[in-house]
Design a protein that fits this description.
Blueprint lengths: L2 H18 L1 H12 L6 H41 L4 E13 L5 E12 L7 E9 L2 E4 L1 E2 L6 E5 L5 E5 L4 H7 L6 E11 L4 H7 L1 E7 L5 E7 L5 E3 L7 E3 L1
Parallel strand pairs: 1-11
Antiparallel strand pairs: 1-2, 2-8, 3-4, 3-9, 5-8, 6-7, 6-12, 9-10
Helix pairs in contact: 1-3, 2-3
């Protein structure tokens, strides 16, 4: 049955139901209490018109809800068919680097989540903005085993090479509803530790398997940064 015939048939069924239900009570009430003011034929005709109008409105609301639900479900299917990544910066550590401490090494611990189709993560880039200048960092080579970061207040954080974010996110796709956590170290040439820590804003960007761009911004003065002693004093463990 064509959809418009089904719609008209539905209106007819609803109209009959209304005429047999609440409108019949209204019709009988008017006939009993106001027999002279409202003729029976007029009451019946007006109730039929009201029944069809109400039925059409009810059917339109029902069909409209179906369209909304189908549109929403189609959008969800489209969203599930492509990656949908997001990232959070857990913490950052900044250490001086270079012969005269003219540069800095930023170590980032981040988590990347995926609510879409499974995807690897690649093309990482780190940008540090200080006032009107922007500097792109150079990702530091993977340690053979692990490194220990020591802070000025005695904290120690052990980072294993197997937890490197760049490695983990490209070797294994992030499944739908999954996440990957890891670290990466980035050398910022000619940016001193003090400038990065007190003035810098970092933007970590990356791409999914389809080449879509994502980025997360982190301000070093937000309280999640840890100042480490010296890049040259980072201990390597075999």
């Amino acid at each position: 049955m064509p959809s418009y015939f089904r719609y008209i048939f539905g209106i007819f069924i609803w109209a009959v139901a209304l005429m047999s239900g609440i409108l019949s009570i209204l019709r009988e009430g008017l006939a009993i209490f106001y027999p002279d003011r409202f003729p029976q034929r007029s009451i019946f005709g007006n109730c039929v018109i009201i029944a069809f109008i109400i039925s059409a409105i009810i059917l339109w609301i029902i069909e409209h809800k179906k369209v909304i639900n189908l549109t929403t479900e189609a959008k969800r299917e489209r969203d599930r068919s492509k990656p949908n990544l997001s990232a959070e910066i857990d913490f950052t550590a900044v250490a001086p680097a270079g012969d005269k401490d003219e540069s800095s090494l930023i170590t980032i611990m981040a988590i990347i989540k995926n609510t879409g189709a499974p995807s690897i993560v690649s093309n990482f880039k780190l940008l540090v903005k200080i006032e009107d200048s922007e500097t792109i960092g150079q990702f530091f080579p993977l340690p053979k085993d692990s490194i220990t970061l020591k802070s000025t207040d005695g904290q120690e954080i052990l980072l294993k090479s197997a937890d490197n974010l760049l490695l983990k996110s490209v070797l294994q796709p992030i499944v739908t509803g999954g996440a990957v956590t890891g670290f990466c170290s980035v050398l910022m040439p000619n940016l001193r530790q003090e400038d990065v820590t007190f003035k810098g804003t970092m933007v970590l960007s990356f791409k999914d398997i389809s080449g879509n761009d994502y980025a997360v911004e982190h301000c070093f003065t937000s309280g999640k940064s840890i100042k480490f002693i010296d890049f040259n004093k980072i201990q390597k463990k075999d």
